[in-house]
């Protein structure tokens, strides 16, 4: 890497992002975690539980996931500022809340592609020959 040239540094950063993932997404993740850390204890506990659930079942791509986590932080910060009780926010069925919350975000390319592939395979197995591999009819 030469000191006066931006090109080698640009190439290096592009290579680094291929290996480690988007540096911008990592920055956004650290910002999200800092916001969650500032919440009152009960909201932080709820946020951590919701985050754990979303890591397993939420969007698989970085950009979609980061938009979702930023919106989650916004929601929790507003709720804490307004004094909304945890049950008032999540309701009696937290899974129903989180599933409705996730429905607003794209699944991510891999999961969407696999869902289409699975649906198509079942249609073929059921003898519905109009279904194709890409999930279209």
TrEMBL record:
Pfam families: DUF1048. It comes from the Bacteria. InterPro entries: UCP029876. This is DUF1048 domain-containing protein.
């Amino acid at each position: 890497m030469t000191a006066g040239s931006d090109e080698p540094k640009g190439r290096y950063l592009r290579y680094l992002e291929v290996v480690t993932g988007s540096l911008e997404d990592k920055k956004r993740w650290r910002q999200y975690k800092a916001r969650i850390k500032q919440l009152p204890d009960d909201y932080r506990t709820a946020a951590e539980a919701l985050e754990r659930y979303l890591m397993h079942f939420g969007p698989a791509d970085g950009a979609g996931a980061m938009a979702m986590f930023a919106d989650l932080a916004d929601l929790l910060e507003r709720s804490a500022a307004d004094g909304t009780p945890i049950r008032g926010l999540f309701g009696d069925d937290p899974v129903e809340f989180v599933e409705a919350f996730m429905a607003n975000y794209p699944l991510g390319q891999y999961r969407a592609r696999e869902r289409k592939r699975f649906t198509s395979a079942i249609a073929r197995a059921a003898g519905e020959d109009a279904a194709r591999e890409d999930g279209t009819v």
